[in-house]
Amino acid sequence: MTSILRSPQALQLTLALIKPDAVAHPLILEAVHQQILNNKFLIVRMRELLWRKEDCQKFYQEHEGSQKYKKFSWHQCLDEGTLFAGRFFYQRLVEFMASGPIRAYILAHKDAIQLWRTVMGPTRVFRARHVAPDSIRGSFGLTDTRNTTHGSDSVVSASREIAAFFPNFSEQRWYEEEEPQLRCGPVCYNPEGGIHFAAGTGGPGPT
Questions:
Q1: At what angle do helices 155-165 and 112-120 cross, to 10 degrees?
Q2: Residue 66 has what pLDDT?
Q3: Which residue among the candidates 25, 33, 109, 150 is catalytic per the annotation?
Q4: Which family does it belong to (predicted)?
């Protein structure tokens, strides 16, 4: 992967997904969007889409069982609960994520990755309700799969995931052209398009 050149003061990007369970309920969808705004994220890009099952499988392939078991046959692994738990979770996740519309965001903030993960709350909904009841998952999550949102867990993951959902978005070009203007301001928000842009630029073109 090509290294992205950015200044030490540059805003950080992350991918945020709102899952089908939340998109299906307009009030929850709007509440999550408002959480993004309330936490001072800049919404760089946003789109809604139906995710193809094959794209879900590629995106979540890391959950398809531990790699150390790949050399064994399915029957040789019958006593390996970890493998089966991983495969079960993977299949359930893929089926769910392809079951209805999702909303994808590119978010910017000086600490976008960690902040978004904090705003989401723990992956396990039971834990989220107890330790972070005001988080998105604590408020709206149903199960560990239907837990409302997804967020990148590292800079490398963010770049890979952004490219998967916004194939026409150039991260390098954004850091060269848009990021300095958004960081230094002033910044406008377009409620209809749901994105932020530097004042006087008219906003980004289609991605």
A1: 80
A2: 38
A3: 150
A4: Belongs to the NDK family.
Annotation-wise, does 147 bind a ligand? yes
171 and 82, same domain (yes or no): no
140 is annotated as contributing to ligand binding: no
Binding residue per annotation — 123?
Answer: yes
CATH number at residue 171: 3.30.70.141
Mean pLDDT per 10-residue segment, the chain (207 residues):
60 97 96 97 96 86 48 40 56 89 97 97 93 96 91 94 95 95 92 91 68
- The answer to whether residues 106 and 149 belong to one domain is yes
Give residue 67's domain range. 54-99
Is 150 known to be catalytic?
yes
Q: Quick one: pLDDT at residue 67?
A: 41
Phi, psi of 60 (to 5 degrees): -105, 20
pLDDT at site 75: 40
List the alpha helices (DSSP H) in 63-146.
Answer: 81-97, 112-120, 125-131, 136-140
Tell me, yes or no, whether 5 lies in a domain.
Answer: no
Token pair recorded at residue 178: 């848009």
Tell me if 175 sits within 8 A of 6, measured CB to CB.
yes
Task: Output the pLDDT for position 201.
Answer: 80
Residue 122 within any structural domain of the chain: yes
Q: What is the pLDDT of residue 206?
A: 57
Asked whether residue 83 is domain-assigned, the answer is yes
- Flag whether 73 is in a domain: yes
Number of domains the chain is built from: 2
